[in-house]
Specification:
CATH topology of the largest domain in chain A: Aspartate Aminotransferase, domain 2
Helix content of chain A: 25-40%
Structural class of chain B: alpha/beta
Order of helices and strands of chain B: HHEHHHEHEHEHEHEHEEEEHHEEHEEEH
Number of domains of chain A: 3
Number of helices of chain A: 18
CATH superfamily of the largest domain in chain B: Type I PLP-dependent aspartate aminotransferase-like (Major domain)
Oligomer: heterodimer
Number of domains of chain B: 2
Strand order of the largest sheet of chain A: 1-7-6-5-4-2-3
Strand order of the largest sheet of chain B: 2-8-7-6-5-3-4
CATH class of the largest domain in chain A: Alpha Beta
CATH architecture of the largest domain in chain A: 3-Layer(aba) Sandwich
Radius of gyration of chain B: 26 Å
Strand content of chain A: 5-15%
Distance between the termini of chain B: 68 Å
Largest sheet of chain A: 7 strands, mixed
Shape of chain B: globular
Helix content of chain B: 25-40%
CATH class of the largest domain in chain B: Alpha Beta
Distance between the termini of chain A: 33 Å
CATH superfamily of the largest domain in chain A: Type I PLP-dependent aspartate aminotransferase-like (Major domain)
């Protein structure tokens, strides 16, 4: 063995050698200038930014090496609940990489953007049909920004009606994802937490007890964050509308109901889509995504601008039809257009039948896992689930002190990405560690069977050799990180970068 | 079936295992009257699905109705810049699916690839800005600035509990896209936004700034280089705000400028935000790219967004993990300072590859070439009769404003030139002004062609007027 380090294992900053580089510029074709003179006395930085200096081969190896330290949908089953880690068709990326998209500048003349505006116009149309709501904006860059936009639109609606000061509360079920209360609070609302029924459903009596003239709206996730369809959506909408409030639906889980039911038919007033979940925009190691919102007719005039429009002669334009009432813009230009293109390509391939089929097969897969793992793990609500199923560590914890985290880490040894374990939170899981599994429709039965077998095996291991789980994973370059230290003594940059 | 692998036979086996007879049964919680009947063509009016060949044709058909920056001598920026993107970036970040088909690194053992590159990216943003903390990225420059405002407001609420500090000053010429987003967020958060206009030289009017900096102000935001291309004296804004103690936010729409210009840290800035598109990201009509976000160390715990930190694993080996999650919405819920859940990782990865591929020297050279080409373009265009520079004595980096006759766009377009961005929509008195942008992609030949075409078109105009 040698003590020498493979350069591929170093950080780029550590592998840096003065004078190395990958790229060179063409010879300057205009006269060279004196910087100080050209910049007319503007203050300059005292030393150059110390970016790494590496050759092309080492740069490529560095990233290929990092690539191997990542699980990804293309290599691993990735049943990360609430994230909808479905297969991302290659055609999306191939078509997107054309100069027509990569070099589409937002300030090109509108006559040169016709195909792009048409694409956005068509995509809005698809989302209108699926949501059952008459107006859509594609601008929000992510689900969280879609939520923010939706709440702003509701706020604008009440201001327009002269009820802005009166409507101060937004109701949020306790099982909601943290983004919902964060969004409502940032928009200046007081959040009212609504306890859920033991089966995760909305407690209608509790809802009736908290609504009133002060209620701006309710943010509900359907299917819920426990992976269950809310059976009383229509009644919930009626209760809210009865006091003049709005119903917001978090569409994070649309993969379960797209093409089966239109949220607008429930009485939903605003909803957001996560195109990176439901419509296969690659998750990109954390983004970019896209979070369009769809709204009922009475909210259309508050949507952000610009909005794609089609004129009778077939030409397309970008308009600001409601300059007086629009909330403004939430993101520069047209949102994450590149992500919208990928969603559009995907949806165009799905078509009408495909949209419905996706929901059916997603729900089928989750219920199959639920049925097959019954008796091996505690199921939080053992009834028909939507596109994801929540198990808990109740049995393994009680018998052998094995937690959801240990089971998750052991999955890594079997080349399976762990399910979601940090959510839903303990307040709704009876104090047990949750394991939220979302297989998606794109996985084959063989893969699901492999996962089921592995989970059964882990249940056995938790009895026979619990330490094996406590020490997992065993096949990765690092194991069980000190995450507390990352927070108490954060080191967020490589010291060499400041040299 | 597109992207669904299971056969009908397998589906039947799965249904049997579940103990239901049909797929429809799985949706019994949805009232039957609301369930879409696929036989009813009036519901779910989507086209028939297309195969790969068909969809390729369809997309090519749409692209046939477009032109892009590469089809022209192109001189528009205004927040998105026509840079060269190395093939290395697409090969690693777009075509190798290891990063693009992963998600947020919740499980660090099987996400070290992502966590490491985010750490390296954060390091690059620290190097670029000189500031000690940077996050894993935001949606774009505009929303990063809105988030900086929200963070500033939270800092103010802690720092000046007894004062009513609720005003954000936008000093100088800000990108209207950014301002629009900031105002949208400000409205909902109840923050007052006040503009301090640019002076006659295109820079912040120092006297107006001084008057505006009352103790109502929690932060002053400066864009530099600003929307008119002019480099602001950020350090003097820092001095001006000392007495009021307001925070100083700098926004940078073209991060390449920081290859040469005084860093936000050197200028005394608290929070630096900006647009990451010019760092290895494609134009895509303005997104996706990313917003960068950096701040002084003391503000770390108020920062929005994901942050990665170095740590150790159980065996003491270096490793990287998400840090300070207690700031974030999934823990803090309604007490969080931001609702942002993820970042634009893949776009941040692109920036890292771009910066490492150019390296310390190459990045500086890119900026030097940009300055030289911009200077050449200024001289060349100002030499055309009927064209003059609007801020001839103010320093610029890659953009500048010319004054000429309005309504020249179409005539230039016929000559395959997309000239500067007309500013008439930007403000009163800017009719006939054009914001001209230059990058390393711009050639001398294109600049000469632009100048010649302008001369030609203006001569035509003059002739039309005299005849």
């Amino acid at each position: 063995m040698t003590n020498a380090t493979n350069p591929a294992d170093l950080l780029l900053f550590e592998a840096s050698v003065e004078g190395r580089r990958c790229l060179r510029l063409p010879e300057l074709d205009v006269p060279k200038v004196d910087l100080k003179q050209a910049l007319k006395g503007a203050k300059l930085r005292s030393k150059p930014a110390n970016f790494p200096e590496v050759g092309e081969l080492d740069l490529v190896r560095h990233f290929k090496n990092l690539a191997q330290k990542n699980f990804s949908v293309d290599r691993n089953f990735y049943p990360l609940g609430s994230c909808t880690m479905k297969y991302n068709p290659k055609i999306n990326v191939t078509l997107l990489a054309q100069p027509g998209f990569t070099r589409a500048h937002p300030h090109l003349p509108e006559s040169d953007l016709q195909g792009h505006i048409e694409l956005m116009y068509n995509l809005e149309g698809y989302l209108r049909e699926i949501s059952g709501l008459p107006a859509v904006t594609l601008q929000p860059a992510a689900g969280a920004q879609g939520e923010m936009t939706g709440v702003m639109v509701m706020q604008a609606y009440f201001e327009d009606r002269g009820e802005g000061k009166q409507r101060t509360e937004i109701i949020i079920p306790e099982s909601a994802h943290g983004t919902n209360p964060a969004t409502a609070a940032l928009a200046g609302y007081k959040t009212v937490t609504l306890k859920s029924l033991p089966d995760g459903g909305c407690d209608l009596d509790a809802l009736r007890a908290v609504v009133g003239p002060q209620t701006a709206g309710m943010m509900i996730t359907n299917p819920s964050t426990l992976g269950l369809l809310e059976p009383n959506m229509v009644e919930i909408a009626k209760i809210l509308h009865g006091v003049g409030a709005q119903l917001y639906m978090d569409g994070a889980n649309m993969n379960a109901i797209q093409g089966v039911v239109r949220p607008g038919d429930y009485g939903v007033d605003v909803m957001h889509f996560n195109l990176h979940k439901t419509y296969s925009v690659p998750h990109g190691a954390g983004g970019p995504g896209a979070g369009p919102i769809a709204v009922a007719a009475h909210l259309e005039k508050f949507l952000p601008w610009p909005r794609p429009a089609k004129s009778t002669d077939g030409t397309f334009s970008l308009e600001n039809p409601n300059a007086k009432t629009t909330i403004g813009k939430v993101r520069s230009f047209f949102g994450n257009y590149g992500a919208l293109v990928m969603a559009y390509i995907y949806m165009t391939q799905l078509g009408r039948e495909g949209v419905r089929r996706n929901a059916e097969n997603a729900v089928l897969g989750a219920n199959y896992i639920r049925a097959k793992l019954r008796g091996h793990y505690h199921i939080m609500n053992d009834k028909t689930c939507a596109h994801e199923v929540v198990f808990t560590d109740a049995t393994q914890d009680k018998e052998n002190g094995i937690h959801a985290l240990d089971i998750a880490k052991r999955l890594i040894d079997y080349d399976i990405h762990p399910m979601t374990i940090y959510f839903p939170q303990a307040n709704v899981t009876g104090g047990h560690g949750a394991m939220m599994v979302e297989p998606t429709e794109t996985e084959s039965k063989q893969t699901l069977d492999f996962f089921i077998d592995v989970m059964k095996k882990i249940a056995v291991e938790s009895k026979e050799n619990p330490q094996l789980l406590k020490d997992a994973p065993h096949n990765q370059s690092v194991v069980r990180l000190d995450e507390v230290r990352a927070t108490t003594q954060p080191q967020i940059y490589c010291p060499m970068c400041m040299a | 079936m597109p992207f669904i692998q299971n056969t009908d036979a397998e589906r039947r086996e799965m249904l049997a295992a579940i103990g239901v007879k049909s797929l429809e049964e799985l949706f019994h919680d949805i009232p039957a009257s609301l369930r879409i009947n696929m036989a009813d063509a009036s519901k779910l009016k989507l086209p028939k699905g297309m195969g790969e060949l068909e969809v390729t044709r369809h997309i090519e058909g749409l692209l046939a109705k477009t032109k892009n920056a590469g089809d022209y001598a192109f001189f528009r920026g205004g927040g998105i810049y026509n840079h060269f993107v190395s093939t290395l970036v697409d090969h690693i970040a777009l075509f190798d699916s290891s990063f693009i088909t992963a998600y947020t690194p919740y499980q660090p053992e099987c996400s070290q690839g992502t966590l490491t590159f985010i750490y390296e990216f954060q390091s690059c943003i620290c190097a670029l800005t000189g500031l000690e903390v940077a996050n894993a990225s935001m949606y774009d420059g505009a929303s990063a600035m809105a988030e900086a405002m929200m963070m500033g407001k939270h800092v103010a609420e802690d720092k000046w509990r007894k004062e009513d500090r609720n005003t954000l000053l936008l000093a100088g010429a800000h990108n209207p896209e950014y301002e629009e987003v900031v105002r949208t967020y400000a409205h909902t958060a109840g923050i007052k936004v006040v503009n301090v206009p640019a002076g006659a030289d295109g820079r912040i009017d120092a006297a107006a700034l001084k008057t505006a900096l009352t103790r109502k102000v929690f932060a002053v935001a400066v864009q530099s280089p600003n929307y008119l291309g002019v480099i602001e004296d950020v350090e003097s804004v820092n001095q001006a705000r000392t007495e009021s103690e307001a925070l100083l936010i700098q926004c940078i729409a073209e991060p390449l400028s920081l290859a040469l210009l005084q860093t936000p840290a050197e200028a005394g800035v608290d929070i630096a935000v900006g647009e990451g598109q010019p760092l290895g990201n494609h134009q895509f009509l303005g997104g996706p790219a990313f917003g960068f976000f950096a701040a002084r160390k003391e503000h770390l715990r108020k920062m929005p967004g994901r942050i990665v930190s170095e740590t150790v694993d159980r065996n003491g080996k270096r490793a990287f993990a998400l840090a300070l999650a207690t700031r974030e919405q999934h823990i803090r819920r309604e007490k969080a300072t931001s609702n942002i859940c993820t970042n634009q990782s893949l776009c941040a990865l692109r920036a890292l590859i771009h910066l490492a591929a150019w390296g310390k020297q190459g990045f500086t050279e890119l900026a030097e070439h940009t300055v030289a080409k911009t200077q050449y373009a200024m001289k060349k265009l100002a030499g055309v009769e009927g064209v003059k520079l609007v801020n001839p004595d103010s320093p610029v980096f890659n953009e500048f404003v010319i004054q000429t006759t309005p309504g020249l766009e179409k005539k230039l377009l016929k000559k395959k030139i997309v000239g500067g961005l007309p500013l008439d929509r930007y403000g009163k008195g800017r009719r006939g002004q054009y914001l001209v942008a230059v990058t390393e992609v711009t050639t001398r030949q294109q600049i000469d062609a632009y100048a010649d075409a302008l001369a030609d078109v203006l001569k035509g105009k003059a002739a039309a007027v005299t005849s």
